[in-house]
């Protein structure tokens, strides 16, 4: 049996995924999580073969979770299932050690087969999305620039962003200016919009 933990912040989607996969004769759901922190905790406690996770969840994203699992040298392999066909997300997922990347509109048979493929050590990525990621190029943002842009997207002033990240307000201004320059954006709002549309946030 392939032991699975499913992480998804929308309860209805989480329940549907778990119910559909439970019908597969060689797959068993051993845990369900509603956010990234809970997903990491379950993976550490249960050591499933595969973690099936959404990309955008409260707190830690699916990409953050995959990176944490890799850093902890856990054997669990990660598949991201998302509505976002953004090349930047795929590139970041690959860099975080994700083993599979599927869109939520894929048939459940495709998902089940992807789980089987990943469980035996292979990777699953839709060819069209892989090609788009190749053409899109590398993510130009640093981790700190990405964190600052995410908070700026929430409408927080520089002083509050600085407080949350334990940095000086002037440093926040520099990070925002650098991010905008890399993206060819005129201001922080445009920079956040461009980075989000390309999957870099």
TrEMBL record:
An example Pfam family from this entry, by short name, is GerE
What name appears for this protein in its UniProt entry?
Two component transcriptional regulator, LuxR family
Domain (Response regulatory): give its ranges.
3-119
What are the 4-aspartylphosphate sites (modified residues) in this protein?
Answer: 54
The GO terms this record gives for MF are: DNA binding
Q: Does the keyword Cytoplasm apply?
A: no
Tell me where in this chain the HTH luxR-type domain is found. 134-199
Record InterPro entries:
CheY-like_superfamily (IPR011006), Sig_transdc_resp-reg_C-effctor (IPR016032), Sig_transdc_resp-reg_receiver (IPR001789), Tscrpt_reg_LuxR_C (IPR000792), WalR-like (IPR039420), WH-like_DNA-bd_sf (IPR036388)
Q: Alphabetically list the UniProt keywords.
A: DNA-binding, Phosphoprotein
Q: Give one GO biological process term.
A: regulation of DNA-templated transcription
**Record flagged with keyword Signal:** no
């Amino acid at each position: 049996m392939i032991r699975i933990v499913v992480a998804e912040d929308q309860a209805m989607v989480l329940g549907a995924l778990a119910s559909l996969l439970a019908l597969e004769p060689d797959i068993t759901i051993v845990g369900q999580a509603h956010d990234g922190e809970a997903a990491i905790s379950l993976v550490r406690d249960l050591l499933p073969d595969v973690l099936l996770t959404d990309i955008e969840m409260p707190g830690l994203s699916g990409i953050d979770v995959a990176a944490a699992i890799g850093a902890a040298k856990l054997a669990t392999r990660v598949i991201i299932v998302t509505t976002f066909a953004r090349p930047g997300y795929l590139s970041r997922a690959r860099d975080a050690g994700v083993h599979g990347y599927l869109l939520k509109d894929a048939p459940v048979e495709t998902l089940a087969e992807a789980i089987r493929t990943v469980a035996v050590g292979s990777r699953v990525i839709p060819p069209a999305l892989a090609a788009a990621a190749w053409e899109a190029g590398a993510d130009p943002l640093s981790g700190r620039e990405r964190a600052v842009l995410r908070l700026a997207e929430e409408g927080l002033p520089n002083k509050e962003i600085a407080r949350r990240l334990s940095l000086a307000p002037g440093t926040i201004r520099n990070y925002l200016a650098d991010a905008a320059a890399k993206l060819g954006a005129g201001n922080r709002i445009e920079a956040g919009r461009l980075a989000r549309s390309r999957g870099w946030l």
